[in-house]
Write a structure and sequence with these properties.
CATH superfamily of the largest domain: P-loop containing nucleotide triphosphate hydrolases
Largest sheet: 5 strands, antiparallel
Number of domains: 6
Strand content: 15-25%
Bound molecules: adenosine-5'-triphosphate
Number of strands: 26
CATH topology of the largest domain: Rossmann fold
Helix content: 40-55%
Number of helices: 26
Structural class: alpha/beta
CATH class of the largest domain: Alpha Beta
Length: 690
């Protein structure tokens, strides 16, 4: 069922061909379409396929050919709008036969043409075997030319009806391609709508009668259409838009857009003079809509199409949900950055200004200082806020995956490459922001490639030859000293300058202790524990700590203390300390820790840090004893079995400290680290009772 194959079953050959042509245009490049028509003969029993039926009318006829494991979809069809304007040229009052194969299809079509405003032609049903045939000289048929009686002199063939977009989305969904292909398909779909809208707008200026018809036709494709002149006077406002915006039955044509649409951002977006064509997501009234606007200079008209993201285009919604699920939506805004410290406020102010530019930003700050929080807020405050926000952390990504993750690849680029290739993060973040965390960790090879993308704003996928333009704002972050890396030849100077066009340094928590109380209150509020009091002594003690893990560590500590405190009061005993580590976190491990062991290490301001360092060293020794390589990932994994689980990020800064003390030797990249003699000696001194 998951194969990328679709079987189309239609009644006639002509319908089959039209539907296949339409589907090929939308999904033909990645779905193999097999098709049969009842009148040509189906000739085989279909099994394990997604099967699209052209109409419910053939359900019975094809039933015998549907084998096991099939998923049936009955197409919703809409009048073939590509050909329909031919009917507008027919003089009012003309009589015509509507010709098709069965009474049902004929009556259905006459009804839907009426709904589309084709009421100036008097249509008489005609199908093979019809007894009383009206003697008229014109026939209209959706592709059934051979059924037209000979007495008719002129035939207008409007072609078989097309498949509705929602059906195409359902097909993609059933083929498991929705997420991967929705963008491509929706772009093609939008283009069709744009073509229609253009015709509509041109027609408006030409003849009102025609525009009325086209307006109704456009309704048939489920999108709202708005056209305004340069002064904002509304010339087109179709029924779908009336429904979307809650204007049913009200007269809006001729009014000014500012009097009709209350969402000021939306009005500004539509009336923008400097932009020719643009897409944006809006919430209007109760609906999420994707608005596409373009201006037609010659006609002095601006046209906006409104796609109801919720109902008509299910796929956008699904994608959005997917994005939220993967954290691709920028979660934070500048309001979420807590603190009144002077340096922080200045940094925030600068970042807010920088957000409005399109330039690359480099954020430097220790682990846990809020780099991602700032990146997310910058995205939110930028004019890209409706686009995606994607984040990648290079320290967590294995070297060999970095390139394909960032730039994508073509099918067959390497062993194991996915069929059809894959979009990289740059392509996925198109129109939005890409947050490159721990940029200091990428190899020189990736740096070279990244530099090219930043300079040229286009990329080649791995193994690809097509140049793909990318419109992505990059915010990079590092907790390392890039200048030092440049000196060591590990970071390209040109890339550094490219990234550092705009620079933000985030202050360490130990340099903004004046914010600690506000942060603590904020985290307690976040946990819904505002009822808990903190003894003054506790605050004093926390303020004395160095917080190498910065705000993240503070947050974790608060969470811990909230969990262990009693009677809604956090007391000294609730601070994670040496006894806590031994008795609670180390569980059954009752080893004592000699006091002198601590004095050997530089002052970190707290025993939390010390004990955690010891634990990391112990884990390293355990991994070494197993003959495995030491990596942050592995240490983090092993730590999960201890009562002190650490994330890779937490491991990282503890490893930095261990290296500073000469207890471990870290190698760059993912080559692994090892414990030094000094580290081993240190570890051996701290146990008693072994
Ligand atoms: N000023 C702040 N106000 C409120 N919360 C903050 C603040 N700064 C950081 N945090 C919180 O601290 C945690 C760590 O922040 P974030 O992930 O942005 O840090 P980072 O610098 O990107 O860390 P790393 O370098 O380890 O990835 C998050 O939960 C974030 O919401």
């Amino acid at each position: 069922m998951r194969e990328r194959k679709l079987v189309v079953l239609a009644g006639s050959e002509e319908t089959r061909k039209t539907l296949v042509a339409q589907l090929s245009e939308f999904i033909g490049t990645f779905v193999q379409i097999e098709s049969y028509a009842v009148d040509e003969g189906i000739g085989r029993v279909i099994q394990n396929r997604v099967v699209l039926l052209s109409s419910y009318l053939i359900e019975e006829e094809v039933a015998a050919f549907i084998g096991k494991g099939c998923h049936l979809i009955t197409a919703k069809r809409i009048v073939n709008f590509h050909n329909i304007d031919q009917l507008f040229t027919v003089p009012k009052g003309t009589e015509a036969l509507y010709v098709n194969d069965f009474p049902e299809t004929v009556n259905e079509a006459i009804e839907s043409l009426k709904n589309l405003g084709i009421d100036h032609i008097k249509l008489y049903p005609y199908f093979p075997g019809k007894k009383m045939v009206k003697d008229v000289s014109l026939a209209i048929t959706p592709g059934e030319m051979e059924l037209v009686p000979n007495s008719v002199k002129e035939v207008i063939n409007i072609g078989p009806r097309l498949i509705d977009m929602t059906t195409i989305i359902t097909v993609l969904d059933k083929l498991g391609l929705l997420e991967e292909k929705q963008e491509e398909v929706s772009t093609r779909y939008i283009q069709t709508i744009i073509q229609l809208s253009r015709r509509l707008a041109v027609a408006t200026s030409e003849a009102n009668q025609v525009s009325e018809h086209l307006k109704k036709v456009v309704d048939g494709v489920h999108d709202g259409i708005l056209a305004v002149d340069r002064k904002g006077k509304i010339t087109v406002f179709n029924g779908i838009l009336e429904k979307l915006l809650g204007f049913e039955g009200k007269r809006v044509i001729g009014k000014n857009i500012t009097d009709v649409i209350s969402n000021k951002d939306l009005v500004t977006f539509i009336m923008a003079e400097d932009e020719k064509e643009a897409n944006r997501y809006f919430t209007v009234e109760y609906a999420d809509v994707i608005v596409h606007r373009f201006s037609m200079e010659a006609e002095g008209t601006i046209v906006a199409t409104f796609k109801n993201a919720v109902e008509t285009i299910e796929m956008e919604r699904k994608l959005r949900r997917e994005l939220v699920k993967r954290g691709h939506y920028a979660k934070y805004t500048f309001n979420d950055i807590i603190g009144h410290n002077k340096q922080l406020l200045e940094t925030k102010e600068i970042a807010e200004k920088l957000a409005k530019t399109q330039l690359t930003i480099l954020i430097q700050g220790e682990s846990g200082t809020g780099k991602e929080l700032f990146a997310s807020s910058i995205h939110h405050a930028s004019n890209r806020h409706n686009g995606p926000f994607l984040a990648v952390n290079f320290s967590a990504l294995p070297e060999e995956l970095v390139e394909s993750e960032l730039f994508g690849y073509e099918e067959g680029a390497f062993t194991g490459a996915k069929k059809g290739g894959r979009k990289g993060l740059f392509e996925q973040a198109n129109g939005g922001t890409l947050f490159l965390d721990e940029i200091g960790d990428i190899s020189l090879k990736v740096q070279a490639r990244l530099l090219r993308v930043l300079q040229e704003k286009e990329l080649l996928r791995i193994g690809g030859s097509e140049i793909i333009p990318v419109d992505v704002r990059v915010v990079a972050a590092t907790n390392r000293n890039l200048l030092e890396l440049i000196e060591k030849g590990e970071f390209r100077e040109d890339l550094y300058h490219r990234l550092k066009v705009l620079f933000i340094h985030l202050p360490e928590l130990r340099k903004r202790k004046d914010d600690m109380e506000a942060l603590i209150r904020y985290f307690m509020h976040q946990s819904g524990r505002m009822d808990v009091k903190i003894e003054a002594e506790v605050l004093d003690q926390l303020k004395r700590y160095h917080w190498y893990g910065n705000i993240r560590e503070l947050k974790n500590t608060i969470d811990y203390m909230l969990a262990v405190c009693e009677d809604h009061v956090i007391r000294i005993k609730d601070i994670p300390n040496e006894s806590f580590f031994q008795s609670k976190r180390f569980g059954t491990n009752e080893r004592g820790v000699k006091q002198h062991a601590y004095s050997e290490a530089p002052d970190t301001g707290s025993t939390i840090e010390e004990q955690e360092l010891i634990t990391v060293l112990q884990i390293i020794r355990e991994i070494e004893e197993k003959g495995l390589g030491i990596s942050r990932q592995r240490i983090s994994e092993f730590s999960r079995n201890s009562s002190l689980p650490l994330s890779e990020q937490q491991v990282r800064y503890r490893m930095d400290l261990l290296q500073e003390r000469g207890f471990v030797e870290k190698s760059r990249g993912r080559l692994g680290s090892k414990m030094t003699e000094k580290g081993r000696n240190f570890l051996s001194t701290i146990y008693t009772g072994e």
